[in-house]
Amino acid sequence: MRKNHEIDYKIYGEEMQYVEIELDPQETAIAEPGAFMMMDDGIQMETMFGDGSQQNNSSIFNKLLNAGKRMLVGENLFMTAFTNVSHGIKQVSFASPYPGKIVPLDLLELGGKVICQKDAFLCAAKGVSIGIEFQRKLGTGLFGGEGFIMEKLEGDGLAFLHASGYVQQKQLASGELLKIDTGCIVGFTATVDYDIQFVGGIKNTIFGGEGLFFASLRGPGKVWIQSLPVSRLAARILAYGTYKRKEEGSILGGLGNMIDGDGW
Question: Using an 8 Å Cβ cutoff, are 190 and 153 in contact?
Fold first, then answer.
């Protein structure tokens, strides 16, 4: 039996998705500030410290501690709760912040815990705990980059992650190893062993263009992978916007742009 609020949902869209959550009377969904899109009349918004999973049985110090931990993974100190205070079924919707896919997770079916990238969480049923997951291995801590501090979702309710690009779910068998760019990891179940490995080789290090380290995920368990990390997309846009092409302003330069698909 679930202890977290049990919610129904529907995901709309293809590349710019949003999730509509159906709330029965007194049911609550929690979300990051800025994720809210729209809601029916009869839903009440409330800003709170942390994720609300320990609102009724925790001291002020623990609430502040849990909220403070969220700041370490780049999340907001506050979250917003959306509660259906009416007598009928109501809907509240949350939108993805950039092109990609919304990934629904039923924590009850996933062993009660999923570890994810620190900016992947979108919203969840009330009762789901959102905290930080420190990596125990020294190599991961020193060289993991995005992989050093990750986010953990715990509970038995529904949670929703957002990923950019195409999202692939893989089921790793016991002992099966997957090597992956750290930024391409969306999340994985707690049974998956996570580590960082050095690429190796002087040519790979200097000329490879793929970074010095990659992540290794060893099964058993489920892994969610994104094809285009938003950090990679942002870096390409920034580089393109600040780089002045040498041929700009010439007739051949304009022709070259057309060939490249950039127009005039």
Answer: no
